[in-house]
Amino acid sequence: MLQRVQSVLLLLTALALGVFLGTNSFVKAISPSEKVVVNPYHVFHQTGNLASFNKDIYYVAVLGGLALILTVFTIFQYKNRIRQMLFVALNSLLIGAALAITVYHIQTDAIKLGSGEGTYGLGMWAAFVALAANWLANRFIKKDEKLVKDADRMR
């Protein structure tokens, strides 16, 4: 049923993935006209109006988009909890891979550009929220499956 806790958590996962895809994951402001930005699409060093370094990382956005689509599809698989657990596990792998690759690009590309320290943006925290909500949804799906098996055993 759609009103179950795991459905709400999967909806939260989908919303968090949308935020991850739409916002910056890391920003380092070196000066008022110079900054380094990492989002699921690019790593770029902007000086004034020009980009002095631009690296496309669209595969992170593809992983996040696939995870978003899989999350929405998984919400409607409530009649088959085993299949739903499988999709949630696959979704965890996709979200984890997108998060790991984003951290990798922050560490190898963004930190080395310019001086000073940067801050993690809303996109990075949204990815962590998506991963945690996905994990909790899996726990509640397993709990429901256990309740059904216990009820079948009692008959």
Structural account:
The chain has 155 residues and is α+β, with helices and mostly antiparallel strands. It is 64% helix and 17% strand. It contains four helices and five strands, in the order αββββααβα. It has a five-stranded antiparallel beta sheet. Helix 1 (5-22) runs antiparallel to helix 4 and helix 2 (58-75) runs antiparallel to helix 3 (81-110). The longest helix has 33 residues, at 122-154.
List the helices and strands and how they pair.
Blueprint: H1 5-22, E1 26-31, E2 34-38, E3 42-47, E4 50-56, H2 58-75, H3 81-110, E5 119-120, H4 122-154
Helix pairs in contact: 1-2, 1-4, 2-3, 3-4
SSE arrangement, N to C: HEEEEHHEH
Q: What oligomeric state do the depicted chains represent?
A: single chain
Number of helical runs? 4
The gross shape turns out to be elongated
The percentage of residues in β strands lies in 15-25%
Determine the structural class based on helices, strands and strand pairing: alpha+beta
Q: How far from one another are the termini?
A: 23 Å
Radius of gyration: 19 Å
Overall pLDDT: 88
Number of strands: 5
Unreliable runs: none
Largest β-sheet summary: 5 strands, antiparallel
What would the keywords be for this entry?
single chain, 155 residues, alpha+beta, five-stranded antiparallel beta sheet, 5 strands
Could you give a quick summary of the protein structure above?
The chain has 4 helices and 5 strands. It is an alpha+beta fold and 155 residues long.
